[in-house]
Automatic annotation (TrEMBL):
<feature type="binding site">
    <location>
        <position position="240"/>
    </location>
    <ligand>
        <name>NADP(+)</name>
    </ligand>
</feature>
<feature type="binding site">
    <location>
        <position position="403"/>
    </location>
    <ligand>
        <name>FAD</name>
    </ligand>
</feature>
<dbReference type="InterPro" id="IPR036188">
    <property type="entry name" value="FAD/NAD-bd_sf"/>
</dbReference>
<feature type="binding site">
    <location>
        <position position="410"/>
    </location>
    <ligand>
        <name>NADP(+)</name>
    </ligand>
</feature>
<dbReference type="InterPro" id="IPR021163">
    <property type="entry name" value="Ferredox_Rdtase_adrenod"/>
</dbReference>
<keyword id="KW-0285">Flavoprotein</keyword>
<keyword id="KW-0496">Mitochondrion</keyword>
<comment type="pathway">
    <text>Steroid metabolism; cholesterol metabolism.</text>
</comment>
<feature type="binding site">
    <location>
        <begin position="228"/>
        <end position="229"/>
    </location>
    <ligand>
        <name>NADP(+)</name>
    </ligand>
</feature>
<keyword id="KW-0560">Oxidoreductase</keyword>
<protein>
    <recommendedName>
        <fullName>NADPH:adrenodoxin oxidoreductase, mitochondrial</fullName>
        <ecNumber>1.18.1.6</ecNumber>
    </recommendedName>
</protein>
<dbReference type="InterPro" id="IPR055275">
    <property type="entry name" value="Ferredox_Rdtase"/>
</dbReference>
<dbReference type="Pfam" id="PF13450">
    <property type="entry name" value="NAD_binding_8"/>
</dbReference>
<keyword id="KW-0249">Electron transport</keyword>
<feature type="binding site">
    <location>
        <begin position="410"/>
        <end position="412"/>
    </location>
    <ligand>
        <name>FAD</name>
    </ligand>
</feature>
<dbReference type="GO" id="GO:0005739">
    <property type="term" value="C:mitochondrion"/>
</dbReference>
<comment type="similarity">
    <text>Belongs to the ferredoxin--NADP reductase type 1 family.</text>
</comment>
Length: 494
């Protein structure tokens, strides 16, 4: 059953705060209060937004946020571009949530390794899966595994200090980089590669020191940003495009042929698409054929799909099929184009993975099968094929939000809205006694586990800020998990 057929859009309902005092006077003269105990798996934006909403709308709830890394914040820490520090300010809100006395952070614990989904469901009244999407989509074409073919996700993880990627060492010795895909992540990579190291230093970013050193030696002068459809379907946003157009010592070189009749479509476009199209058309009209005094070139290329990576020991060029648009779909023609390149980064989206066999996971779509955030049972029974006609279709007390639920779409605000909606479902299910509070749940016992507490994270945070201050940066991220654990353990045992 296709995920798109079964997912419902659940309106965000601002429910009142819910109390959960259980009256057992029929058998006892005392009244027992059972506190809702909730586990959130994943300490990224989806996890924190979900926790934030539940704290506000579900009285007495106790929330454990479990994260596989010793450090919190997920995509905000490891995905947001280092020269976009304003986006990372949301961590201040997440910190307030984590420091609420009803919340416990347990870092360095992994679903599928340190505990199973069944164990979590036994120890909590409700479990929310919010661990995101961390696997790359692939092109499935020749030579995709050659050493100078990376994913944009890997490149971002490298310069953002995600543990495990510090030794990626992308080969920046050539003159050109090709980014396959035209989303904001691809534009982030293009901007970082084409920015001068001095600018990155002046702006006091938290880009890793090893990445700065490698970028200072980079010979990349041209970045191709290749998309299968046209300018009207470009996935990057106007903010990212403006930054590229204003980049110091960098020229944006459009292919004029890509913009035939685009200007004619502007009056009928919705406002956001209209504004970015107007900016592109204006830039095309103003571009100069000369490149004197320009160190670097950013070249968006439209209507091209890669069909072959050409090379023996490394990719030397990309072969493309030329597309035409048919009802906004890219349809291949008989034309081909070969463009030389020294490094390739595909940026064609992500997919989640299943961390437990008991998760109803859609391998094709790379996300959990759910309806509006409620996880669907793996085996459904009913005479009708329509999900709405099957009564007992949900896993009681099991939910999913963020990219693990929707696929990797939208920005942080999109994730916030999705997570608030799912959290509202959780609150309503407690209120309506769908989740029964007939006994207390113990939660995870961190004794004897390598769990990192919030105080442990604060010690890591302080050390990163100290190291960063020595270089005039907001922080220098630690990438060695062993070092992180040493710092955290020392703080936790004091």
């Amino acid at each position: 059953m296709a995920l798109g057929m079964i997912r419902k859009i659940i309106p965000l309902v601002r429910s009142g705060k819910v109390g959960h005092t259980i009256d057992r006077s029929a058998s006892s003269s005392s009244t027992v209060t059972v506190k809702p105990r909730i586990c959130i798996v994943g300490a990224g934006p989806a996890g924190f937004y979900t926790a934030q909403y539940i704290l506000k709308h579900l009285d007495n709830s106790q929330i454990d946020i479990v994260e596989k890394l010793p450090v919190p914040f997920g995509l905000v820490r490891f995905g947001v571009a280092p020269d976009h520090p304003e986006v990372k300010n949301v961590n201040n809100t997440f910190t307030k949530t984590a420091e609420n006395p009803r919340v416990r952070f347990l870092g360095n614990l992994s679903l599928g390794k340190d505990f199973s989904l069944a164990e979590l469901r036994e120890r909590y009244h409700a479990v929310l899966l919010t661990y995101g999407a961390e696997q790359d989509n692939t092109l499935g074409i020749t030579n995709e595994t050659l050493p100078n073919v990376l994913s944009a996700r890997e490149f971002v993880a490298w310069y953002n200090g995600l543990p495990g990627f510090e030794n990626l060492n992308p080969d920046l010795s050539g003159n050109s980089l090709t980014l396959l895909g035209q989303g904001n992540v691809a534009v982030d990579v293009a901007r970082i590669v084409l920015s001068s190291v001095d600018d990155l230093k002046v702006r006091k970013t938290d880009i890793t020191d090893y990445a700065l050193e490698a970028l200072s030696r980079s010979n990349i002068k041209t970045v191709h940003l290749v998309g299968r459809r046209g300018p009207l379907q470009a996935a990057f946003t106007i903010k990212e495009l403006r930054e590229m157009l204003k980049l110091t010592n960098c020229k944006t070189a459009w292919r004029v042929d890509d913009f035939h009749h685009v200007e004619d479509s502007i009056p009928d476009l919705p406002r956001p698409r209209k504004r970015i199209t107007e900016l592109m058309v204006k830039s095309v009209a103003e571009q100069s054929a000369t490149i004197s005094q320009i160190e670097r070139t950013f070249q968006p290329i439209f209507y091209r799909s890669p069909i072959n990576l050409i090379g023996q020991t490394k990719v030397e060029a990309v072969e493309y099929v030329v597309n035409k648009l048919v009802e906004d779909r890219a349809v291949a023609t008989d034309q081909r184009e070969i463009i030389p390149t020294d490094l390739v980064c595909r940026s064609i989206g992500y997919r989640a993975i299943s961390l437990d066999n008991h998760i109803n996971f859609n391998e094709k779509k790379g996300c959990v099968n759910n309806a509006g955030g409620r996880v669907l049972k793996q085996t459904l029974t009913g005479s009708d094929q329509t999900i709405d006609d099957i009564e007992d279709k949900y896993e009681t007390g099991l939910y999913v939000s963020g990219w693990l639920a929707t696929g990797p779409t939208g920005v942080i605000l999109t994730t916030m809205n999705n997570s608030f909606g799912v959290a509202d479902l959780v609150c309503r299910d407690f209120h309506n006694n769908v989740i029964k509070l007939n006994s207390s749940r113990p939660g995870i016992d961190p004794a004897g586990t390598p769990a990192v507490s919030w105080n442990g994270w604060k010690a890591i945070d302080a050390e990163e800020e100290r190291l960063g201050s020595l270089q005039g940066k907001p922080r220098e991220k630690l990438t060695c998990i062993k070092k992180m654990l040493e710092i955290a353990l020392n703080a936790q045992t004091k």
